[in-house]
Specification:
Belongs to the glycosyl hydrolase 13 family. Keywords: Hydrolase. This protein is an alpha/beta fold. The chain has 18 helices and 17 strands. The N terminus is likely disordered.
Length: 553
């Protein structure tokens, strides 16, 4: 078991999150205690020792609230309860108590942009009719056309198709995601008050922080007449850059920040203050606004996740990300995988111009990915990320080196993207396949029965049981890296080395150690210093391709 003494000391620091390593748990795919094939809270609690031994500082749980799973739990029917398939509030309290006993912080998802269509408020809105107070909690509008048969605007759903759905009385409601996820109206004071109650509810139960889903989309320009975008085919990123900053009708509007300043007052009323991190898919300079100390304090850095495995591009992204965080008074965040993207052990091996959806539709065969080469690159990327100043967010299973399960049969897919796009986009199920804990069993130790998504036979070789205590395994690499990181980190600065060969990233940390990553196709000489850790064996004192080493100076 990892020595937690230094963590216990840091846990009393209100700024513990600035350099924390946070482990994301997707509850339905982590561990199943009751054998129904769906991961649950008691399953997570039983496996918390794995996280403590890994050496992370906190776990972040994706939604575990009541939900019909129209969007993997992000369609929330009650934000202050537990889905009965996943447990009870007592189970949640037991999980928090055990996590804290082990020295782990607990972060939960909050989903403020929308609710489930099963939420009591939305059902009341459907039954109350146009112009009612109940409908004002959501975004209902009359349609266009002679009989209101056309959507109110050309706004598009992230999951495909119109962002409007018509109800039997003829009005339309806004859903930027699935139709089962109606958008809330943040001009309504009841909506704002209810979310304050939710923040206090979980904070009072011992939660240490919040991850804010779709943090950039709460506030919309609902002034009449609603305005079209004019180019509905644009992606989120393209639409944001096509308009002056802060003026998009429903993304990243300047008004959203008053909400988070209000939330910060609530979070700071606790001792220690509760942390928060924004999921905000906006350009870096705009992302910094969400991370200001009087708002959420931190925001996910998606530029790093999307960067190619190329030295100069990564160097620029890292430099810009650190500058953005510094300007906000926040620490940087780093992430390689999460529940929405292709696992990096596969993604980093794909050519830069790969159509990722086409690759998924091919079952991961066009182009084929060499799993061994992908794992080598993923290990190098991980050591690079863990050497950077700031917080690192790990996604469950990456410590095992899991690849994307790209060949899931279409008949088992659960992601609403598949159906909503007319079975054109395969969706995110491939990174959500339940974890393998043992080398045998109906679900490789995930639970006593099967799993809600099928696991490939190759998962046995990646199981915790197969790697635990095995020198050189990916699991042991993560454990060693996190143990060393805890000892080495002291400060939030880095200095780029001036003598780096082409294709090599080198930087010194203020603590007197160096990280070197070889992203080129050839081995390079290893700089002087004591080898503390290497992502792959060294080649006669040389650093091979797709390898990262930490050196004592």
């Amino acid at each position: 078991m990892t020595d937690r003494s230094t963590l216990d000391l840091s846990s009393r620091d209100p700024d513990w999150w600035r350099q924390a390593v946070v482990y994301q748990v997707y509850p339905r795919s982590f561990a199943d205690a009751d054998g129904d094939g769906l991961g649950d809270l008691r399953g997570i609690t039983r496996r918390l020792g794995h996280l403590a031994a890994l050496g992370v500082d906190a776990l972040w749980m994706s939604p575990f609230y009541p939900s019909e799973l129209a969007d993997g739990g992000y369609d929330v029917a009650d934000p202050r309860d537990v889905d009965p398939r996943l447990g009870t509030l007592d189970d949640f309290d037991a999980l928090v108590a055990e996590a804290h006993r082990l020295g782990l912080k607990v972060i939960v998802d909050i989903v403020p942009n929308h609710s489930s269509h099963q939420h009591v408020w939305f059902q009341e809105a459907l039954n109350s009719g146009p112009g009612s107070a109940a409908r004002d909690r959501y975004v209902f509008r009359d349609g266009r056309g002679e009989h209101g048969e056309l959507p109110p605007t050309d706004w598009q759903s992230v999951f495909g198709g119109s962002a409007w759905k018509r109800v039997p009385d003829g009005q339309w409601y806004l859903h930027l995601f699935a139709p089962e996820q109606p958008d809330l109206n943040w001009e309504n004071q009841e909506v704002r008050a209810d979310h304050r109650t939710t923040l206090r509810f979980w904070s009072d139960r011992g939660v240490d922080g919040f991850r804010v889903d779709v943090a950039h989309a709460l506030v919309k320009d609902l002034s009449e007449p609603l305005r079209d975008l004019g180019r509905p085919e644009l992606s989120r990123e393209e639409a944001l850059t096509a308009l002056p900053p802060g003026t998009h009708p429903f993304y990243d509007r300047d008004d959203v920040h008053e909400i988070y300043r209000d939330w910060r007052k609530i979070l700071d009323a606790y001792r220690p203050p509760r942390m928060a991190v924004a999921e905000a898919w906006v350009p870096g300079a705009r992302r910094a606004l969400y991370a200001r100390p009087d708002e959420l304090g931190q925001a996910f850095n998606f530029e790093y996740l999307q960067a190619r495995w190329e030295a100069e591009e990564l160097r620029q992204v890292i430099t810009d990300s650190l500058a953005t965080a510094r300007a906000a008074g926040a620490s940087a965040t780093w992430v390689l995988s999460n529940h929405d993207v292709i696992r990096h052990a596969s993604r980093l091996m794909l050519p830069p111009d790969t159509d990722l959806n086409a690759w998924l539709l091919s079952g991961g065969r066009a182009p084929a990915v060499d799993e061994a080469a992908g794992l080598r690159r993923a290990r190098a990327a991980t050591l690079l990320m863990l050497a950077l100043p700031g917080s690192a967010y790990l996604y469950q299973g990456e410590e095992l080196g899991l690849p994307e399960v790209a060949d899931l049969p279409t008949e088992v897919l659960q992601d609403p993207i598949w159906e909503q796009t007319g079975r054109v986009r395969k969706g995110r199920d491939g990174c959500r396949v339940p974890l393998p804990w043992t080398t045998a069993g109906p679900s490789y130790g995930f639970g006593p029965g099967g799993a809600w998504l099928p696991q490939p036979p190759g998962f046995a070789a990646y199981a915790v049981e197969a790697q635990d205590g095995v020198e050189g395994s990916t699991l042991e690499l993560y454990r060693t890296a996190l143990r060393l990181r805890r000892k080495l980190l002291d400060g939030e600065e880095l200095t780029w080395a001036a003598d780096s060969p082409d294709g090599v990233l080198q930087f010194d940390r203020s603590e007197g150690w160096r990280c070197v990553t070889n992203l080129s196709a050839s081995a390079v000489p290893l700089p002087a210093g004591e080898v503390l850790l290497s992502s792959a064996p060294l080649e006669d004192g040389r650093l091979g391709p797709d390898t990262t080493v930490w050196l004592g100076r």
